[in-house]
Design the sequence.
């Protein structure tokens, strides 16, 4: 099954990479992006790999060894990556707000 990316998901991946460059190391940022891409590639052969959300064909998938969650949906002929979320960004924003 073909995997496609929404504009939002592409933007989210760039944001994850940029956040990690700023708050961690270039190596960590690059490795996280590789893990995300590798994990998403598994959906081509196993589109229902993630955890089903509600009664529609929507899923979320936690990328191993990262804080990244991928939200996607399974359509008739392809899988569409809808968005990505990195939990570290949420933690960092909460920490920043408390100071």
Sequence:
């Amino acid at each position: 099954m073909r995997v496609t990316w929404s504009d939002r998901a592409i933007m989210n991946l760039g944001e994850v990479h940029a956040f990690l460059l700023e708050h961690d190391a270039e190596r960590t940022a690059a490795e996280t992006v590789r893990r995300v891409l590798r994990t998403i590639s598994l959906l081509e052969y196993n589109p229902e790999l993630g955890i089903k959300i509600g009664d529609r064909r929507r899923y979320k998938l936690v990328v191993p060894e990262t804080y990244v969650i991928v939200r996607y949906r399974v359509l008739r002929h392809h899988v569409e990556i809808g968005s990505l979320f990195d939990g570290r960004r949420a933690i960092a924003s909460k920490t920043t707000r408390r100071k």
